[in-house]
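We store amino acids, tokens; thus:
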Amino acid sequence: MTGLTGSIPAASRWPHAGARLRLWLWLAWLVALGLGLVGIYQRMTQGHLPAGYGSYVPWGLWVAIYFHGVGIAGGAFVLGAGGFVLGLPGFGHPALVRTVIVLAVAAILPAFMGVWLDLGHMGRAPFIFLYPNFTSMMAFNAWMYNAFLIVAVVCWLLSLKSRSGWLRPLLCLAILFSILFPSQSGAFFGVVEAKGFWHSALLPMLFLASAITAGAATLLVVRAIADDQGLSRTEHDLAVARLRTVTLVGLIVYFVFEFAEFSIALWNPNTHAPAVELILWGPYWWVFWIVHLLLGGLVPLVLLITRRPRAWTGAALLIAGAFISARLNVLVPGQAVGEIQGLQEAFHHERLTYIYHATVMEYLVGLFLLAVGAAVFFLGERINRWAARRATSFSRGEA
């Protein structure tokens, strides 16, 4: 195979999960969990007081984690399940479908927890299901996510059967939901006419492109370090190579979209785009230039164009983590521009400011959410292996 995927290297050159890598992953998880529990304790005992958000900027890091998590879930599911439906080499085994479903759940659950922790009255979270208003984009999204989870669980059960005519049709339905995840997230902001930076028809496409890119990167990491259950080495190599191609193309497409958005806003020297200026030169400059452009863009791009699979895995890790900046660069600057001139100067309080910086407590809770997602995926993969063995034993018993 040539082209963007490059020629497939020898199997021995692919990264494989060894004892050292597993040890480092376990250590990283324990550190994230330990520090994260400190943040959860602060959140539960002190409420929102240690957080950096306030009245003018009520959505911060946790909401960005929410949108990033559902984006990863949607992007990874579209690629994994879509490859299975199309019968692409390296994606045709039901075990990959189950892994993708577990990965989607492992991304969505911490995302939901982030929004739940962000609520002022966490006990009111079920109200969006008990008393929904479907003219609200928020209610529509919440119900759509849960509809996806129900369909995904049914697909997981069907994938354990040797033959099921319903698996592919239901996967197509779940893929439709997955495409809607990031698109509706962009529309969630785009319909807010009062926020000029958010009110853009390009925003849903930016969210979709970032979700496909981050989802492909996360799935690439999973496939690169996972055991090759049900896949030959050639199929495994093909799957990783295809995901590398999608990640590379998605990265380029996203930054082209972003350049179009920013260049149009700044093209006329007589116009003023305060939100874009905040992103590029304001207090959040490091989020864009260092986290987003350098760690999430330029460095992964250089690594992905090489022919070294270990470099691809490193690039995918950087994208999966650093692309949360794509959400922050939409979320925070859109709130940091006041609708009424002089409002910030009229009242003075630490919670009445348009400048937001995440606090230590918010970062610690973010680590906890990451640890929860990793634990869900680890347990889910163990359940996958157990269920596959049971299904194989059952089919042999029938035979």
About this structure: The chain has a mean pLDDT of 85. The chain has 14 helices and no strands. Residues 360-398 form the longest helix (39 residues). The radius of gyration is 22 Å.
